[in-house]
């Protein structure tokens, strides 16, 4: 026995020595239980004239010296001041992590994520995220709550503006790119920040499009549609994940042990931080699964949520729960270790102030390079929806121009929701951009006329008179920045406020009219909008909005964006998305007793992937490497795309795949590849993709991934309605290996079983 003890001690000595050397283990060994739980608490801060203070809106206050992270400090001065308070005022001098919602830029604002998704350009998204990280880290921000990777198929939901739209494949490619962009090269690079994939999971499936609402969806849809972008983020090495406010099929996500611990940690091997959403631990009470605040802490923590944001159930109740054995000390230590490890990796134990750098802040923010990148991103995000005749591009001497709509001069709309530390006054409005672009002497008259936030029309007689005297009308219509985003769902998706009345006045004049749309979601564009000969979707484009809009309107840049979300004709069609299943009576059939409406056409107004150009592209038929292959072989698909117009332009070549007959129903087509190419006038380019078992696979009726023998149709073209197709056969059926790591025994069948389809869909475009 003594021998046994001695050998055990000997064996442990190196480990003890290691613990002494490792600052994380050394700290853990010294920390009290309360200090540990402090590291698992995150508080919001507000800034006051005398400096930053803990947000009074959060519940019972705790000293900042006892928390592990704060949300909301956004300047080098604020972060340094708070860090000093904590490092000097706490017993163990553990530095804070500073978190902030850096979604689409910091001081330089890039297009909102839905707009960037319209560029279909993961490399561009990575570059904008990198630039945002460079700026934010200089102000001392270590951690962003981005990217938002929620698939969204209901434009009533206000948060569609924050994500990549309706498709898991495009969403996965952008999720990975954004994670790489924010996180950069990783420590010790001082511009590297922690990224957070949010909101895990199916937040976009909120019933009725009402924010925070329940999601009740099938296991198949969860696996095939909502999980893939998260798995792509995990595969890209994302540092943190935030559960969503909603419940999924009866289990609030902040209590979802099977998905948080089972799937994320055990199966996918995620080792980063799980941070709650704002107050969401406490909200397990109103959600009806916790009777007391202590229960909310116990349920969320034991499900796997490491850090509680804003509410203070952990601080108030975890110590007792640990002391009475309801929560294990080991699980607390594991969570604290993850927090401390993140701090160590960022180099904060060596220098707590290394990120808060006023000189770097001055030198790195809103630089000409970042403005140029913002302009490039904005140009590529614009989608030309309509251009009848030859109205666009405009001449730079267009005669007298009337610009109408309050959005034309609304700088805060340019930067959109979640604009980081962006300042509206540093952004170029559409009006300013037009003025910058026209030839000297061109008369531009501006009249607001109507605003999205008010039913009143201003000076309509003057608008009408001026319109009749003008050669060209440019109406800037849509939504304000506040009309989309968190808690800003809408039930009506038309032009809000007095904009319709303004539009009919303009249409009545018969003058050439260009509508520039600014909005955070697909809108329902009614008959009057469709009467305008030219329609440009510009979303919220960020700091360089006006310049980029002018670049496209005047033809200095050829528009190339494609819609990442379907535009419905009518709210009653929602949810509407291209990758739907067929029915036994497809609407495209003979029309009687088909799956359609009797009052509104069934197809969307503008399909997923749609966008026009000032030039024209012609596609060859797809050429396949073979018409028949085995399940383990790779299929080469090649098309030749020719620019048949007179202008150079970018085209986004899209590849979709349909499994013609399978043991379970499949979407009518799924995006499996895309490529942005540039073609000079008359130039042809061949574009190739390769498809493999990951693309052919499905989850069978037992959710087992496999490739099934049979026919497939591949479509390659300019949008999701293309009929440019070829057919091939897979000759054998094959089961595929299970994705992820070990399968935890505690998981329910559906969460524990094979999830490789999720991996499969997560492939980014580079692979194709
Ligand atoms: C609530 C939002 O749901 C989340 O996306 C955001 O990161 C947090 N608030 C913090 O601002």
Automatic annotation (TrEMBL):
Catalytic class of the enzyme: hydrolase
Cross-referenced SMART domains: Fn3_like
InterPro entries: Cellulose_Degrad_GH3 (IPR051915), Fn3-like (IPR026891), GH (IPR017853), Glyco_hydro_3_C (IPR002772), Glyco_hydro_3_C_sf (IPR036881), Glyco_hydro_3_N (IPR001764), Glyco_hydro_3_N_sf (IPR036962), Ig-like_fold (IPR013783)
Top-level taxon in the UniProt lineage: Bacteria
GO molecular function: beta-glucosidase activity
Enzyme Commission number, as recorded: 3.2.1.21
Residue stretches spanning the membrane: none
Signal peptide per UniProt: 1-19
Keyword tags: Glycosidase, Hydrolase, Signal
Pfam family, one: Fn3-like
Domain annotation Fibronectin type III-like: ranges: 651-720
Catalytic activity, as annotated: Hydrolysis of terminal, non-reducing beta-D-glucosyl residues with release of beta-D-glucose
NCBIfam families registered for this protein in UniProt: PRK15098.1
Family statement: Belongs to the glycosyl hydrolase 3 family.
Name the UniProt record assigns to this protein: beta-glucosidase
Lineage of the species this protein comes from: Bacteria, Pseudomonadati, Pseudomonadota, Gammaproteobacteria, Pseudomonadales
Name of the gene this protein is made from: bglX
């Amino acid at each position: 026995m003594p021998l046994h003890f001695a050998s055990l001690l000997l064996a442990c000595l190196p480990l003890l020595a290691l613990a002494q050397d490792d600052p994380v283990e050394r700290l853990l060994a010294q920390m009290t239980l309360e200090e540990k739980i402090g590291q698992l608490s995150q508080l919001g801060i507000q800034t006051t004239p005398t400096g930053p203070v803990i947000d009074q809106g959060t519940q019972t206050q705790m000293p900042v010296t006892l928390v592990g992270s704060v949300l909301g400090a956004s300047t080098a001065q604020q972060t340094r001041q708070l860090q000093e308070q904590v490092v000097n005022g706490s017993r163990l001098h553990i530095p804070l992590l500073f978190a902030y919602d850096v979604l689409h830029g910091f001081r330089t604002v890039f297009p909102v994520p839905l707009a960037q998704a319209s560029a279909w350009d993961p490399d561009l998204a990575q570059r904008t995220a990198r630039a945002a990280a460079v700026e934010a880290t200089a102000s001392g921000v270590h951690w962003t709550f981005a990217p938002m990777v929620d698939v969204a198929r209901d434009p009533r939901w206000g948060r569609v503006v924050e994500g990549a739209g309706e498709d898991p494949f495009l969403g996965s490619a952008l999720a990975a790119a954004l994670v790489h962009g924010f996180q950069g090269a990783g420590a010790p690079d001082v511009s590297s920040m922690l990224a957070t994939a949010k909101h895990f999971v199916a937040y976009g499936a909120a019933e009725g499009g009402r924010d925070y609402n329940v999601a009740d969806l099938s296991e198949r849809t969860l696996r095939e549609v909502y999980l893939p972008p998260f798995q792509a983020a995990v595969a890209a090495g994302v540092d943190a994940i935030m559960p969503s406010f909603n419940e999924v099929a009866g289990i609030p996500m902040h209590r979802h042990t099977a998905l948080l611990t089972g799937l994320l940690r055990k199966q996918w091997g995620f080792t980063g931080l799980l941070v709650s959403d704002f107050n969401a631990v406490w909200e397990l009470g109103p959600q009806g699964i916790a009777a007391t605040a202590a229960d909310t802490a116990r349920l969320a923590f034991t499900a796997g949520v490491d850090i509680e944001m804003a509410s203070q159930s952990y601080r108030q109740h975890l110590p007792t729960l640990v002391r009475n054995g309801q929560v294990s000390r080991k699980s607390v230590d594991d969570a604290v270790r993850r927090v401390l490890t993140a701090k160590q990796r960022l180099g904060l134990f060596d220098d707590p102030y290394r990120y808060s750098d006023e000189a770097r802040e001055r030198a790195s923010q809103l630089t000409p390079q970042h403005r140029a990148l913002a302009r490039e991103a904005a140009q590529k995000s614009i989608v030309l929806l309509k251009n009848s005749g030859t109205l666009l591009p405009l001449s730079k001497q267009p005669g007298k121009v009337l610009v109408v709509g309050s959005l034309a001069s609304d700088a805060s709309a340019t930067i959109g929701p979640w604009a980081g530390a962006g300042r509206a006054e540093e952004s170029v409005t559409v009006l300013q951009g037009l003025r910058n672009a026209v030839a000297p002497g061109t008369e531009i008259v501006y009249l607001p006329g109507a605003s999205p936030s008010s039913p009143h029309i201003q000076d309509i007689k003057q608008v009408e008179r001026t319109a009749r005297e003008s050669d060209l009308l440019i109406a800037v219509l849509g939504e304000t920045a506040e009309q989309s985003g968190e808690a800003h769902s809408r039930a009506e998706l038309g032009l809000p406020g007095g904009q319709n009345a303004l539009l009919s006045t303009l249409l009545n004049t018969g003058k050439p009219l260009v509508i520039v749309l600014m909005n955070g979601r697909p809108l329902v564009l009614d008959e009057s909008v469709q009467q305008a000969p030219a329609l440009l979707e510009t979303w919220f484009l960020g700091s360089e909005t006006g310049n980029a809009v002018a670049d496209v309107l005047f033809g200095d840049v050829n528009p190339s964006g494609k819609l990442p979300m379907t535009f419905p004709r009518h709210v009653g069609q929602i949810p509407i998305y291209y990758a739907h299943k067929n029915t036994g009576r497809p609407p495209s059939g003979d029309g009687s007793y088909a799956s359609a409406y009797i009052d509104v056409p069934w197809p969307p107004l503008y399909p997923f992937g749609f966008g026009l150009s000032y030039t024209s592209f012609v596609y060859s038929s797809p050429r396949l490497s073979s018409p028949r292959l085995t399940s383990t072989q790779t299929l080469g698909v090649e098309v030749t795309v020719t620019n048949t117009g007179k202008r150079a332009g970018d085209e986004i070549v899209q590849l979709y795949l349909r499994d013609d007959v399978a043991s379970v129903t499949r979407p009518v087509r799924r995006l499996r590849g895309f490529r942005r190419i540039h073609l000079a006038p008359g130039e042809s380019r061949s574009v190739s993709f390769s498809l493999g078992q990951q693309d052919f696979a499905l989850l069978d009726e037992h959710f087992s991934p496999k490739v099934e023998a049979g026919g497939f149709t591949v479509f390659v073209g300019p949008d999701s309605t293309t009929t440019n197709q070829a057919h091939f056969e897979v000759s054998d059926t094959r089961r595929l290996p299970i994705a992820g790591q070990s399968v935890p025994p505690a998981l329910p069948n559906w969460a524990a079983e094979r999830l490789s389809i999720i991996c499969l869909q997560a492939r980014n475009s580079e692979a194709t």
